[in-house]
Amino acid sequence: MSELLGLIFSPWTEKARWALDVRRVPYTFRHYQPMIGEPALRVKLRQLTGRISVPVLTTDDGRVIADSADIARWADGRGDGPTLFPAEHEAAIARFIDLSERAMNAGRALSLSRMLGDDEALSDMVPAPIRRTLGPLASRLGAFGIRRTLRKYDGHTADLDAHRRALVDALEEIRAALAAKAQPDGAPKTLLGGFTFADITVSQALAGVLPPAELRLSPAGRRGFTDPELRERYADLLAWRDALYRAFRTS
Fold first, then answer.
1. Same domain for 93 and 182?
2. What's the pLDDT tens digit per position in 12-28?
3. Residue 81 in domain
4. Beta-sheet strands, E only, within the chain
5. Is 158 helix (H, G, I), strand (E, B) or coil?
6. Does 225 lie in the same domain as 104?
């Protein structure tokens, strides 16, 4: 059986899991431990230097796929369920993937930066056995890991104002795209006239505003990934995201 390596609280991992689930492709899930698991992941990817990340799917025939959209494309050729990448919508889906990536990258930077001021959230980022051993010092290890992640994706300095503008701009684009769509009877709007990977990827753009309930975060971690001002400002988008989950998130 195929194995998906990912982070249980990551919207990138959620995109891959949703695609596999909605296509009813069997797989096992294994939680990735940042820093601790990096050497083995580098061996799996055959990449000894440079930036690496999860999710990573190892297929039942030994292929290694290291990108959410590529994992979804692989799933679309297997199982059954909604077609995630209809040929006539390839260009539009690519644009929505880019839009969601901009929002998710900005949301990650903003959320992790907020968490640096929350010792409980920092401690919760540390695996439980290590957290119990370190006690109050666990928050320091959590802060080290978060700063390492911020450097990994943003360099040594992060322009939080720029990230916030990028997130807001992306959310406004999503709002405009949905406003142009008709409301089907008894179902949530979809971006391309039917449920596709565009809906999966765009729904995760809201993870840095308010994570979906399906992402496994501690109360402190969920607090760190929630932006109260944007949560109120984009309540309509959050309602759309939650309706999409109820209609199409099968597991």
1. yes
2. 999 999 999 999 999 99
3. no
4. 2-6, 27-31, 56-58, 64-65
5. coil
6. yes
Per the CB < 8 A criterion, the answer to whether 126 and 171 are in contact is: no
Contact assessment for residue 210 and residue 231, using Cβ atoms and an 8 Å cutoff: yes
pTM surpassing 0.85? yes
Residue 179 has pLDDT above 60, yes or no: yes
CA distance 179 to 172: 10
**Domain enclosing residue 44, as ranges:** 2-76
Say yes or no: 45 and 99 in one domain: no
Of 56, 76, 96, which residue is a domain's last?
76
Q: For the chain, what percent of residues have pLDDT higher than 70?
A: 98
Give the distance between the most distant pair of CA atoms in the chain: 55
Among the candidates 43, 76, 109, a domain finishes at 76
Per residue in 33-77, pLDDT tens?
Answer: 888 889 999 999 999 888 899 999 999 999 999 999 999 999 999
Task: Burial-class residue 22 by CB neighbours within 10 Å (0-12, 13-18, 19+).
Answer: buried
C-alpha distance from residue 246 to each of 13, 93, 130, 142, 190 (Å): 19, 22, 36, 33, 13
pLDDT band at 229 (very low <50, low <70, confident <90, very high): very high
∠ CA(187), CA(190), CA(195), 5° rounding? 90
Angle at 114 between CA 5 and CA 213, to 5 degrees: 50
Q: Are 2 and 79 a contacting pair, CB within 8 Å? A: no
